[in-house]
Amino acid sequence: MSIVPTIRKMLVVKDPAKWKVPIWFTEVGEALGGPVDPARQAQDRVKAYTMGIAQGVSHIEWFEAQEGGYAMGLLDSSSNPTPAYVALRNLVTALGPAPVYTGWVLLNNQDYAFVFQGATNTVLVAWALPNAVDNVSFGQTVTAMNPVGGTVATTSTYSLSNAPVLVLGAPANLVAQATTNLSRPFPWGGNYSGVSWVSVAMGGSNVETGLHQLNADATSTAVTVYGGQARDCSKSSAVSFTVDPNFLSYTHASIKISAVVRKISATDNPGFNLKYESATGRKGIGWNSVPGSDKWYTLTWTVTDDEFVGNWGYHFSFDCDSTNYSRYYLQQVTVTNLVPRPASAPTALTATPGAGLVSLNWNGVSGATGYNVKGSSASEGPYETITPTLTGTSWQDVGLPAGTPFYFVVSAVNPGGEGPDSTPATATPTPPALSILLTGGTVRCSWPTSASTFALQEAGSLPGGWTNSSAALQVQGSDNVVLTPVVNRTKFYRLVQ
């Protein structure tokens, strides 16, 4: 759910003119083998497409169409449909060719659910946490489809597992909750968009507060030592971590990384290199020896050029080079943002209507390096970013239809992240004035370029017979201009939206 937002942050910095270009996933796949059987592969396909569409991916391609030796084909080597094919067919049938994502909701405050306007009705795609089963009451009768098997049940309750289900005709109260959540970050265990630090406490079941250890059981062993929980890291040569994307994602804030460590025995000689994603690629800070086994030691590093994008699925690691140097306990890891986000929202936001536009002005926020302008067609939102990281305190949203009210909020940003949204302001764009000037043998029609949703039409008589003008449209300064020769008859002109 963080890939598209991270890419858009990158584009804002690297190529601002293209920050809203369509984003494609050209190769999404999962090979059969180990715990991945055909049913699991099909379930994961539904999840990948659901979360891809939800985060704004415009085109998703599965690798591969027909089995070619990678155990990923939608069709097997004999061209027979696989369970993944059946699951995709059922998902496409429910969502239609152009599904509209309307938001997310947590069922029973814990189960993931994404709502779409589908082919014929609202569709909720949901699944429970791994290794969990949760009884969900919908408060009304719904149609629940297993996308893998295609079985359909009419029920008001559903025993939700980690296998996804399609709820056709989602209840209105859940749709309303999802719509409210549309512009909010998806909370994988909490909303960390405004916190100053994230942490993971090691143990049998790691306590993750916005910081996640990747493949914890494959790279370390949970232990109880010295009266508390920890992880024995001697199992592998490296342990890796990823921060919650709402905490840091393509953000150049100075951070502090700290780790609470201890030798397994006094004769061991453990140590590691802290490797992290930087603005110039993956970097290492250098070798750090674990000081001793007599107590817990806190190692701390300050990083000023971090740029967490998850290129290989993680943001930083403690790399021991080999298991010869990984005999240490790890109790806790913390990442602290050293650059406070703007604490307050911009004030005195005003919205002034114009011809096909709204002009915005607001008071600046101390410590802000830019502002995000967000818009909505409703006062309660959701608000979508229209233009990111403006450096000034004014902006015009042009090309808006006249007569429709628009709502705006503004937030301040700095290297530490984004602050809270301002109080909304609203304005209704006005129709443009059409100026007609006769000069010599030419009729000059002009109107503001901000009214880009309007076109010039002409007619030889009233009330009807209007056609779009075939004359070339020119831009002169802030005006659209059309020049037509004078003819020996009456001609009428108008602008239409």
Summarize this structure as a short list of keywords or feature phrases.
497 residues, six-stranded antiparallel beta sheet, 5 helices, mainly beta, seven-stranded antiparallel beta sheet, 35 strands, Jelly Rolls, globular, 43% strand, single chain, 4 domains, Immunoglobulin-like
Offer a concise description of the structure.
This protein folds into four domains: 3-181, no CATH class; 197-337, Sandwich (Jelly Rolls); 347-427, Immunoglobulins (Immunoglobulin-like, Sandwich); 435-496, Immunoglobulin-like, CATH 2.60.40. The chain is 11% helix and 43% strand.
Could you outline the blueprint of secondary structure elements for this entry?
Blueprint: H1 3-14, E1 24-28, H2 38-55, E2 59-62, H3 83-95, E3 100-107, E4 111-117, E5 122-127, E6 134-145, E7 152-160, E8 165-168, H4 172-181, E9 197-201, E10 207-209, E11 211-213, H5 216-219, E12 221-225, E13 228-232, E14 238-243, E15 255-263, E16 271-278, E17 281-289, E18 297-303, E19 316-319, E20 328-337, E21 347-354, E22 357-363, E23 370-376, E24 384-390, E25 394-398, E26 406-414, E27 417-421, E28 425-427, E29 435-439, E30 442-448, E31 455-459, E32 467-468, E33 473-476, E34 479-485, E35 492-496
Parallel strand pairs: 1-2
Antiparallel strand pairs: 3-4, 4-5, 5-8, 6-7, 6-8, 9-10, 9-20, 11-14, 12-13, 13-20, 14-19, 15-18, 15-20, 16-17, 16-19, 21-22, 22-25, 23-24, 23-26, 26-27, 26-28, 29-30, 30-34, 31-32, 31-35, 33-34
Helix pairs in contact: 2-3
